[in-house]
Specification:
322 residues, mainly alpha, MetI-like fold, 71% helix
């Protein structure tokens, strides 16, 4: 009887299953390269945060030795942020930041969401194909352009005649300019969120006789609410961190009295840092003036971190999965 076993049976070894050695070396190299890039990014971030809080602690220690921690709230007759004179009234720049951010959100949220709804639900494909790239290009316009627009057009030609402000620069002008700056970002992210809503939900709404406007309000917006909230939070964070527009259009030069009136000149936290530093570590004035830059940066970092943590919780609570 002849044997059924082939003369040269195919024998597989562990080495055969491992694949091509050259390809494996490339994979290992890419793994090491990407891991190194990620580790370097994390390391640089840790060093930045460490330097920020180390200098902030130097500022706080020096302030406690000089006049106590209560000096962060100026109790004088005319409280304000005057770092070159050793007066560090933190509420001045925090209130300025909140006012400007609030105004910018009031401007950007309806405009951005309206543009997103039009692009996602009403615009024809051909119209959307050229409007969406224009919107994304606007999001990349340098902020210094918006700052000069606020100085030359927005303040003297619009805000000052309408609100009767004393000068063409104010917290109100800054907030409106930053709102216009943030609008393309709000619109782009919101449009992506609306586009991610399944088409079947819209068709089901149309199938029971709902109008397009009813479908948008009752179906699409609730379904995309988590993305819209995320867009709003990103826009607020962008408004809080905006520097050039705030430095150019706020009307203050590194120091300002405390105010809650948007039509007054004032300072945001970023503008206070930019105008005090002026591109140099040789800050003229009080011995703690330079370290105050790091303290303000640390406070700004904590504010943004808290905002993002709250935003994550909100998005998780309202997120819909399909």
């Amino acid at each position: 009887m002849s044997s059924l076993t082939p003369a040269n049976p195919l024998v597989l070894t562990i080495g055969d299953l491992q694949g091509n050695l050259r390809r494996l070396r490339k994979e290992r190299f890419m793994h090491v390269l990407l891991f190194g890039s990620a580790a370097l990014s994390i390391g640089i971030s840790i060093l930045i945060v460490f330097t920020l809080f180390r200098e902030a602690w130097v500022f706080l220690s020096g302030l406690i030795e000089q006049s106590g921690l209560g000096a962060l709230i100026d109790g004088g007759a005319r409280p304000g942020w005057y770092p070159r004179d050793g007066r560090f009234d933190l509420p001045t720049i925090v209130l300025g930041t909140i006012i400007v951010s609030g105004i910018s959100v009031v401007v950007a949220a309806p405009l951005g969401l309206g543009a997103a709804i039009y692009l996602s639900e009403y615009a024809k494909p051909r119209t959307r194909s050229w409007l969406k790239p224009i919107l994304e290009v606007l999001a990349g316009v340098p902020s210094v352009v918006f700052g000069f627009f606020a100085l030359r057009v927005l303040g003297p030609d619009l805000i000052q005649p309408l609100f009767g402000t004393r000068t063409p620069t104010s917290l109100l002008v800054t907030g409106v300019a930053i709102g216009i700056l943030v609008t393309p970002l709000m619109a782009s992210i919101s449009e992506d969120a609306l586009g991610a809503v399944p088409r079947a939900l819209r068709e089901a709404s149309f199938g029971i006789g709902a109008r397009r406007s009813t479908t948008v309000v009752k179906v699409v917006l609730p379904a995309a609410v988590s993305g819209i909230v995320a867009a709003l939070i990103v826009s607020v964070s962008r408004a809080i961190g905006e520097t050039m527009v705030a430095a150019l259009a706020s009307g203050a030069l590194g120091q300002a009295p405390r105010t809650v009136n948007p039509t007054d000149t004032g300072l945001t936290m970023t503008a206070a840092m930019a105008q005090l530093a002026q591109g140099s570590d040789q800050v003229v004035g009080d011995t703690l003036a330079f370290q105050s830059l790091f303290f303000v940066g640390a406070v700004l970092f904590l504010m943004t971190l808290a905002l993002n943590l709250v935003a994550d919780r909100i998005v998780e609570r309202v997120r819909n999965q399909y």
